[in-house]
Every structure is written in C-alpha cells, then in structure tokens.
Queue: 2 jobs
Job 1
Amino acid sequence: MEDLRNKDKSIKIVWNEIVSFFGSGYFRIVDYWEADNFAIGIIRDNKLIYISTWELNKEPDSEILCYTEFEILNGKEQIPYKLEKRIDEISISKLIIEIKNFIIS
C-alpha cells in the first residue's frame, strides 16, 4: 500500500475503494500536494486524476464526497498536464465509474 499515513481518513477511504475496484497495482499515487492531507493524485500511463475531500465532508456519518480533476500528460509543454474534466462534488461510487471511463477513453 502507498504511504498515506499523513492523509485524512476520508482520502484513505477513497483510495481503498479505488484499490478494491481496480486492484493494488493499477494506479501509482503521486503526492504533488504533500502538505494537503485531503488530496492525492493517481496516475495510470499518461493520465493523472487529482482527488480531494477538502471541505466536502463536514458531517461525520455522511457519504464521502470528492472534488476531482482528470488530466492528460501534455507532452513537453511548460504545464505538464491538460485538464480534461473537473467534477466539483461526486460520491466515491460515481467517482470510480468516472475514473474507469477516463482510463479507457
């Protein structure tokens, strides 16, 4: 398992659900946002998915919601990734469907 010990419980739950669906070796975690305990990035080939749970989960027993951005490696451009899609609020189950669709596209 990737090192998520400094991350918030909500992001750990999101990661565990992603691993449960895709398998443990399918994505690589990148932590470009190391100081942000509510965010991770996951990479598969040339596709980056940024996931954050910051400010979306104020009720302790409610469903975990995420903000996410889907990006594609932009070659040798100064900005390395091109934003393809942004979702301001999404459940984990719907996020997994979006991730699957993005990865196979």
Job 2
Amino acid sequence: MTKTSAKKQPRNLGMTPEIGSSYPAAELEELHDGAGNMYMWVASYESTRFMFTALGVTRYSALSWLIDGLRAHAVQYSIDADWFYPDDIHVQRLKVGATLRDGEVLNG
C-alpha cells in the first residue's frame, strides 16, 4: 500500500475571495463591452529585486491575489508581511489579447 499525501493548498491570507463568491454586478459587467471584447484586470508591483503580477476577473480579485502573493513572498524570505508599499501597486484593466511591453500596452 502506498502512502499518498494531500496536495498542499495555498494559505488564504484573508484578502482573496473564495471560489464561487459573488462579485458586484458592476465589476462583472466590465468583463465585456458592447463590441464583444473581453477584459481582465492586472495588478502589479515592482520591488527593487522582483516584479510581481496577478490577474483577476475583477479589480478586487487581481489586487487580492497580488497582496496574497506579496505576503507569501514575505514568508519565503522571512521578512515583515507588510514589507511592500500599497501606494506603489498598479492595477489596470486590459482587453484579453493585449500585449504588454515593460508593463505598458503595446496593442489592444
């Protein structure tokens, strides 16, 4: 008989919406426009040594995933959980299919 271990789940640090949670209707409406284009949200943070990026279907979810990632980074590097500067987090809405170069939209 072989021993199997359950897949380790990421810690929810209190910022990430649970799967299946409801989002405000206004934010969900921003996923599409009248022309059939789809959109997503991208949250990013650039530190002196790393570039962090998180994607979401709403502004809130992208920002929440990024903050969870920044805090997970803090655990890995044994630094203070609030090591980052929240005012330096950039969140943008992008059309699906857009190309970014150095964080700026190149097309789309």
